[in-house]
């Protein structure tokens, strides 16, 4: 899929990316006033599609964007993008902004049409539950300085972008974040889990973190399997630093094992046995969602 031949969806039509144009008055451009999703597709099979679309709808409801599209409408767009862009491994990006007005005014205009954009991009092979093959992640940590509505998957991502850049500048893959009470929230583009004494622990859902679909599916899969104990509770950064294992999760990464935090080894500095078990279960069951 050469990028300039990429076929994208914009406001009801499919077209080459080079022909996709939006107004500079679009509120997505001026205010970051929009909601987005990224859904992974492996060889034409979408993972967690209904869950992703529900989260996008929740986001639109939260910010008052009205759009008449059903899950099936979105699925048709996804299938069409997959057919037109090859059946490899694709991330499907969906974006709804409030639309373009004739003036720049903060209040939501009543009578504009939302801008709907979707495109597909190549993603790596699905993570294989093999300690010797999996990519080992290094992360930095810093205080979470984003806004207080992190449960909304908003296109206003500057806070996340700046935190990601901190890690990038430090030569690591991600930046994990903690609030003013020294409690773990999430990472700039992932949710975070720790393992201590074989218990898998992640922060509870609230306004400090995105309700990740990978997080949701992983918790569900682990609870149904029952081998590992699972907890959703507040985690202090002291616990994170003393964890046996540290994972970051997202739709494009599955469960990514972290071996180094702020230049120090996590646990014994190697990919852990609990990761191996969790990723095995996740790989076996993720297509059921
Ligand atoms: C801030 C943030 N947290 C968590 C996630 C993980 O969410 P999901 O598992 O739905 O991809 C993402 C994904 O992009 C994210 O941007």
Walkthrough of the structure:
By secondary structure, the chain is an alpha+beta fold. The protein folds into 2 domains: 120 residues, Aminotransferase class 4, branched-chain amino acid transferase, N-terminal domain (D-amino Acid Aminotransferase, Chain A, domain 1); 152 residues, D-amino Acid Aminotransferase, Chain A, domain 2. Helices cover 27% and strands 28% of the residues. The protein is built from 7 helices and 15 strands. Strands 7, 8, 9, 10, 11, 12, 13, 14 and 15 form a 9-stranded mixed sheet that branches. Strands 2-1-6-5-3-4 form a 6-stranded antiparallel sheet. A hairpin with a 2-residue loop joins strand 3 and strand 4. Helix 5 packs across helix 7. The longest helix is centred in the N-terminal third of the chain and has 15 residues. It is globular. The two termini are 27 Å apart. The model has no long low-confidence stretch (mean pLDDT 96). The structure holds pyridoxal-5'-phosphate. The site of pyridoxal-5'-phosphate has 14 residues, from helix 5 and strand 13. It holds the Pfam family Aminotran_4. One of its GO terms (molecular function) is 4-amino-4-deoxychorismate lyase activity. It is an enzyme of class 4 (lyase).
């Amino acid at each position: 899929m050469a990028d300039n031949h990429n076929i994208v969806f914009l406001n009801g039509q499919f077209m080459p990316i080079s022909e996709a144009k939006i107004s500079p008055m679009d509120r997505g451009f001026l205010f970051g006033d929009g909601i987005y999703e990224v859904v992974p597709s492996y060889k034409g099979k979408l993972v967690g599609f209904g869950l992703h679309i529900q989260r996008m709808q929740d986001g639109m409801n939260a910010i008052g964007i009205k759009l008449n599209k059903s899950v099936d409408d979105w699925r048709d767009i996804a299938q069409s993008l997959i057919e037109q862009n090859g059946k490899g491994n694709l991330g499907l990006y969906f974006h709804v902004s409030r639309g373009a007005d004739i003036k720049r005014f903060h209040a939501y205009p009543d009578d504009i049409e939302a801008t709907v954009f979707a495109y597909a991009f190549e993603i790596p092979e699905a993570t294989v539950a093999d300690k010797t093959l999996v990519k080992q992640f290094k992360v930095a940590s810093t205080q979470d300085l984003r806004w207080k509505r992190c449960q909304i998957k908003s296109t206003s991502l500057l806070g996340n972008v700046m935190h990601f850049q901190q890690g990038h500048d430090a030569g690591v893959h991600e930046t994990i974040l903690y609030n003013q009470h020294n409690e773990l929230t999430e990472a700039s583009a992932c949710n975070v889990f720790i393992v201590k004494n074989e218990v898998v622990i992640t922060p509870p859902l609230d306004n400090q973190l995105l309700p990740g679909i990978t997080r949701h599916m992983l918790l569900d899969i682990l609870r149904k399997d029952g081998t590992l104990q699972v907890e959703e509770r507040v985690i202090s950064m002291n616990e994170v630093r003393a964890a046996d294992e540290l994972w970051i999760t997202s739709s494009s990464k599955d469960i990514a094992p972290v071996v180094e935090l702020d230049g120090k080894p996590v646990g014994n500095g190697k990919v852990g046995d609990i990761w191996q078990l969790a990723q095995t279960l996740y790989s076996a069951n993720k297509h059921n969602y």
